[in-house]
Amino acid sequence: MTERKASAVTARSVDAATLKAFAHPLRMRMYDHLKDHGAATASMLARAMGESTGQTSYHLRQLERHGLVEEETGRGSARERWWVAVGFSFGPEVAAGDADDGTRTAAQAVMHHQLRTRTARLQEWVDRMDDEDPGWAAASLSNEVTTLLTVSEVESLSDALAEVLREHLDRAKAARDAGQGEGRRMVKLYQQVFPLPASDDGAGGDGAG
Length: 209
Known about the structure:
49% helix
């Protein structure tokens, strides 16, 4: 999930109706769980969410209706279906212009949820870092760059980063499909490019840290 325009990494852009359907606290938590832990059934999600299976089943149907989750083919049964998250994106245009208050509220809810979740995940990683496997700790990355760019330069940079990410993800998927590579773990990667407040714009050079 991303709130930027569709790129080489995201599957599709969603409309206002889909965004509104997604902007439900339990649905967003369920979607996050599917992203981070892989396919799950309604009963598995119920245990993870501390909810009833009836609740998670209902919300899975709503997410499926809007194309945000789909059934994993070749797995499960008529009584116990396995679900996976479907990537999507939305841009500022969804909640701009003639958008109604409900759409703007939904967009804000999704972005605030994403921010809270991201902060919690990063905090959990910092707290765990010293006890992590040395190889995984060394492979992690925390990088920040502040520089002066134009809108077109930001768009070009974002698209290039997305292409590099897609290339590596496709290569990793091909290796998984071929049964290659051991010791795989879920890895979280955040890509953020955004302007600072106009008052912070200066004539200085790049700042990295």
